[in-house]
From TrEMBL:
It comes from the Bacteria. Residues 1-30 are annotated as: Disordered. InterPro entries: IraD/Gp25-like, T6SS_TssE1-like. Pfam families: GPW_gp25 (PF04965). This is IraD/Gp25-like domain-containing protein. SUPFAM superfamilies: gpW/gp25-like.
Length: 205
């Protein structure tokens, strides 16, 4: 988590939104976070590959460095972001069950990662607009890969539901080098079950 946040901050400060850079050496690939690299390595089950030989970790370091130099495709970055946002929206914040008013640094740190208690939020306000605001605040607070000023969350009127489930359209830009990546995706919220599912992530207009 910390590695992802730091990576996001580095990419954010390196180049302002919309300013192209020299991408010729990467063939269109983009910078990726350390968490992205570790997730890809786990998916390939690298630790179970007995054919590899390491000398004081040198080969391992070389592989990681090479991956960071090569970068990742937009599709891969979107896929990893979707996984992390789905995890975020289904994780309840620590301050929901523990009063952190006397510990503001803990309250504002990654220890308090997650979303509000959806059942309490819905019973207290019970308006789609309040839910949309809560989703936007959670994304700004917890996901540094998204440029905060570009995040918009609105109720998807084209996806009616016969039960209490709501669908929200989320539009944002993901910080990336050489240029930011426009995103559009949808979050289906079931307040009664306290669950959020992400669907139809794609590039924005």
């Amino acid at each position: 988590m910390t590695a992802t946040m730091r990576s996001g901050e580095i990419m954010a400060s390196r180049r302002p939104s919309g300013v192209p850079g020299d991408d010729s050496s990467r063939g269109g690939l983009r910078e990726m976070s350390l968490l992205h690299i570790f997730r890809d390595s786990a998916a390939r089950r690298d630790s179970r590959d007995n054919s590899r030989r390491y000398t004081e970790g040198e080969r391992d370091l070389t592989l990681v460095s090479q991956k960071r130099r090569e970068g990742a495709s937009e599709a891969s970055l979107r896929r990893n972001l979707a996984l992390d946002i789905a995890s975020l929206m289904n994780t309840i914040r620590l301050d929901v069950i523990t009063d952190l008013s006397d510990t503001p640094r803990v309250r504002d740190s990654v220890i308090n990662h997650g979303f509000q208690d959806m059942d309490s939020l819905w019973r207290k306000n019970r308006t789609p607009g309040d839910m949309a605001d809560a989703i936007r605040i959670a994304l700004i607070r917890n996901e540094p890969r998204l440029r905060a000023g570009t995040i918009e969350v609105r109720v998807d009127e084209n996806d009616p539901s016969v039960d209490q489930r709501l669908t929200f359209e989320i539009v944002a830009e993901m910080i990336s080098d050489p240029t930011d990546i426009p995103l559009q995706f949808y979050a289906e919220v079931d307040p009664a079950a306290g669950k959020v599912s992400m669907k139809r992530m794609q590039g924005g207009s």
